[in-house]
Amino acid sequence: MIEEQVIGIVGGMGPESGIMLCNYINSLTPVTKDQEHLSMVLMSFPKHIVDRTAFLDGKTRINPAFQISKVIKKLESAGATIIGIACNTAHSSIIFNEIKKDLKKRGSTLKLLHMPQITCDILGKTYPKVKRVGVISTNGTYKSKIYESTLKERGYEVILPNFEFQNDVIHKMIYDADFGIKASPNIRTKEVKQLKNKTLDFFYKNNVEAIILGCTELSLVFSENPSEIKVIDSTMSLARALVQEASVVNTKNNEVRTLYTL
Q1: How many other CB atoms sit within 10 Å of the CB of residue 44?
Q2: What is the per-residue pLDDT across 177-217, written as a single tens digit (0 to 9) for each?
Q3: CATH number of the domain at 116-234, out of 3.40.50.1370, 3.30.70.20, 3.10.20.30, 3.40.50.1860?
């Protein structure tokens, strides 16, 4: 008998990101009929998970890790064996380590994937000659240096804007209450397009060879990659890793078999 791996996705950060991750997983799975798709559970409880950047900025003392852990527990009860969190900022050490601590305390056997590390892995495999890398992210990810430290450990030269540009251009593109991606996930507002172009122009002028989309919301507006610069989408990277992990099954003789190789 084959032991099935079930993908569990923590959504709601924002809600469209979890849906996009599911869509990427489906698009990456080589199938000819419904029954060949991977089993997947998405749970999205946006009201219950405080904003990650707000927590990292000290605007709330509530660590979102606690509610994320509760969602993971629900996913495990629903049969999930592999977990992906559809939010880069949730992988900052003060949040992610608390989640891992809770899983260990519960004796959970879930496999929890780390989106930024996976994204950097895929960057290296896809573009082995790239050395100058830029990161587009929320203020929370920017300040916690999730990507910056991981990339530097791997020998990359990391190019980031100063905080004024980060806050007034990149973070605003994502968070602005009137026109930002979070406020209008299904509408490409002219303001977002302008800030996107301004962001790309910064990296062009700084001779960046590749850009990491270090916020899951960015997948919604960077669907068409600029031809002059390489782009690594963290949401797509996590989807690839989840498909790879979920395609490894155990047979009744405890043998391991891989269904799909990406």
Answers
A1: 20
A2: 999 999 988 888 999 999 999 999 999 999 999 999 999 99
A3: 3.40.50.1860
